[in-house]
From TrEMBL:
The lineage of its organism: Eukaryota, Metazoa, Ecdysozoa, Arthropoda, Hexapoda. One of its GO terms (molecular function) is cyclin-dependent protein serine/threonine kinase activity. Keywords: ATP-binding, Cell cycle, Cell division, Cell projection, Cilium, Cytoplasm, Developmental protein, Kinase, Nucleotide-binding, Nucleus, Serine/threonine-protein kinase, Transferase. It comes from Coptotermes formosanus. Transmembrane segments: none annotated. Its main location: other. GO terms for biological process: cell division. This is Cyclin-dependent kinase 20. GO terms for cellular component: cilium; cytoplasm; nucleus.
Length: 334
């Protein structure tokens, strides 16, 4: 920790506070993710070990860079490049609404990042606007691999279904699937694209049951043909929903060009095996029709304070470092 100085608070991660800092000597802006162990005998959480291992293997312009890892007190600290804002904030910046070319550029960056992760056998399992950060140069980068997991196509092994934030959770996960693929990320990509196009979440459920009900009501009741193996999912027979034909895509996206709607449709498919791969999506006609994707020079360049314009709670950045870490310890042990 003697190489860094804490200057403020960024937000809260899965394991505690994320602090803003500087590297002493160079002045480089960094983000410090402090992880405290709840019980020493329990060791380091497996989710954190997975995130570290995954990030140490990643070298992609569109995935946030892990700069350093070191022990600190009863835990350790992950050091990341500092990102002043994220897609969640960009979507809520009513004074600076995103243009279609900027939306397309963000989607290209997201797809390139997802394609890289999948090509390197990494499932993210929690893609959502809040985990897509924006650099000062306007580059979108995938962050928070706390739920990330290595996978191998030839191995049919079970995973936890308690992953992904509810609004972006694939239907197989909502039905309790333990055997699934990186296609869960592709469903989330479709949800994110839909949110960009409509400026609101597509499936905003308050509970898992309501979430599944909204998906089925919107896309229609799946069949054995559209979703093979559906009836074999662990929670399929625990609840039934009224049969529905779903809502027309034109009604869901009334002001969108056909190419945009077609791309969303190819992600939001019940059968995960048929969802469009990220690499394939990069050559979809949506990105080659006017208006074309924005050049990086024309992308929004978030400035200091942009993130906090859209947060409910502010934080006193003058608090001493010891108090900041004390707050974090209290959160984790409560």
């Amino acid at each position: 920790m003697d190489q860094y100085k804490v200057v403020g608070r960024i937000g809260e991660g899965a394991h505690g506070l994320v602090l803003r800092g500087q590297r002493l000597g160079t002045g480089q802006e960094i983000a410090l993710k402090r992880v405290l162990l709840k019980k020493l005998e329990d060791g380091i959480p497996t989710t954190v070990i997975r995130e570290i291992k995954a990030l140490q293997e990643v070298d992609c312009e569109y995935v946030v860079q892990l700069l350093d890892v070191f022990p600190q007190g009863l835990g350790f600290v992950l050091v990341f490049e500092f990102m002043p804002s994220g897609l969640w904030e960009m979507l809520r910046d009513a004074e600076n609404p995103l243009t279609v070319p900027q939306m397309k550029a963000y989607m290209i960056m997201l797809l390139k990042g997802v394609a890289y992760l999948h090509e390197h056998s990494i499932m993210h399992r929690d893609l959502k606007p809040a985990n897509l950060l924006i650099s000062r140069d306007g580059v979108l980068k995938i962050a928070d691999l706390g739920l990330g997991r290595m996978f191998w196509a030839e191995q049919n092994r079970p995973y936890s279904h308690q992953v992904a934030t509810r609004w972006y959770r694939a239907p197989e996960l909502l039905y309790g699937a333990r055997y699934y693929t990186e296609a869960v990320d592709l469903w989330a990509v479709g949800c994110i694209l839909g949110e960009l196009l409509t400026c609101s979440p597509l499936f905003p459920g308050e509970t898992d049951i309501e979430q599944l009900a909204i998906v089925l009501r919107t896309l229609g009741t799946p069949t054995a043909e559209t979703w093979p193996g559906m009836t074999e999912l662990p929670d399929f027979n625990k609840i039934t929903f009224p049969e529905t034909r779903g809502v027309s895509w034109d009604q869901i996206f009334p002001d969108c060009v056909p190419e945009a709607v077609d791309l969303v449709k190819k992600f939001l498919v019940y059968n995960g095996d048929r969802r469009l791969k990220a690499k394939q999506a990069l050559v979809h006609p949506y990105f080659f029709t006017l208006p074309l994707p924005c050049q990086l020079s024309g992308m929004p360049k978030p400035v200091d304070g942009h993130r906090h314009q859209f947060k409910v709670k502010e934080y006193d950045i003058e608090k001493p470092v010891d108090e900041l870490f004390s707050d974090l310890k209290g959160m984790l042990t409560s």
